[in-house]
């Protein structure tokens, strides 16, 4: 039980850092891939970069389903380890794999039916839509790799092993980055595949992570195991796993709905705005991925100590998580304020894009310090079984308050009003987070 005992015995700050660093590192590598991928795609043409931006919400929904369910599974497994119920943890892990495969089949069916009409909402350019569907169809047809990989990754994290998930992410991202220019531009005698090459590089990277995760799990010694022999589906466990997954799924999937809603508002003002928001959503991951790494590192610690009824250690974990997340937020804000023009110029040399993009990054960057607190409290409520509070925060942050505010402010201040809506929404949600925390203690 050494790997689980550290959640209740090790020095908290060093434990959180050790648990978070692998996630932060792997997420930064993933962010690097997103940026490099966009830079290569931009060299195909403006239509290709716009197509990827339009397809991004669909890609993000797939990620929301995988990571959302996986994070809920992570929290559930950590609580079971904290209460010493390893048999239930094994059952949950096994059912989690089968559930993820069902999710994959759902993604394929919905993708085939709705991808084209969805993308048509944001552009009437035939080339852009054709490129977008060519890209996203490859992604959802081969997404089983990411479903299996993420599920195994979350089982490792629930057990306290953050190194293996980092290796899975690192290998997949590096494979992706290496293959991107080779397949897009047809290096080494291969045919030039354009935007389809970018999609193929992505799925090969995901499949590489999946194969490595399966190999590690078969050779490793874990306190949690997949038990396929005499497996029986449990309806009550299904309800429990989905209940635990709701906050994380909403946090990620509503992000896709939010992106789509913002794009619809931007499309009425400027098509350039849609492109810039797509760029922002790529580069902001360099700030939020480290914060998410801290959240992922502390989630099993908080869940375990909640299950073990160690209240003081639970509260100290929350405090340290907020402090560490704020450090990354401040650094991210400073970088965006000082180097906004240089960041945008990585993707375009068009003067209109540079001018509007520089303004956008400088304004939206002001929301980082507020948003990081909301991320941490959403995770805390999830770890302690207070799913309703998590859901409220997520809905208000990304739908209930943000979209109406963006719509209203855009009529008064134009495109700048949309960027300010992010800042004001996150500021309001900080106050709501503290109120819910004091109310639920």
TrEMBL record:
The reply to whether Transmembrane helix figures as a keyword in the UniProt entry is yes
- Assigned keywords, A-Z: Antiport, Cell membrane, Ion transport, Membrane, Transmembrane, Transmembrane helix, Transport
One Pfam family matching this protein: MatE
Q: How does it sit in the membrane?
A: Multi-pass membrane protein
Source organism's superkingdom? Answer: Bacteria
Keyword Lipid biosynthesis carried by entry? no
Compartments reported by the entry: Cell membrane
Transmembrane stretches, start-end: 12-33, 53-77, 97-115, 135-152, 164-188, 194-217, 249-280, 286-306, 318-339, 359-378, 390-412, 418-437
Function of the protein: Multidrug efflux pump.
Similarity remark = Belongs to the multi antimicrobial extrusion (MATE) (TC 2.A.66.1) family.
- Alphabetized NCBIfam families for the sequence: matE
Q: What is this protein called?
A: Probable multidrug resistance protein NorM
Organism of this sequence: Enterococcus alishanensis
Q: What lineage does UniProt assign to this protein's organism?
A: Bacteria, Bacillati, Bacillota, Bacilli, Lactobacillales
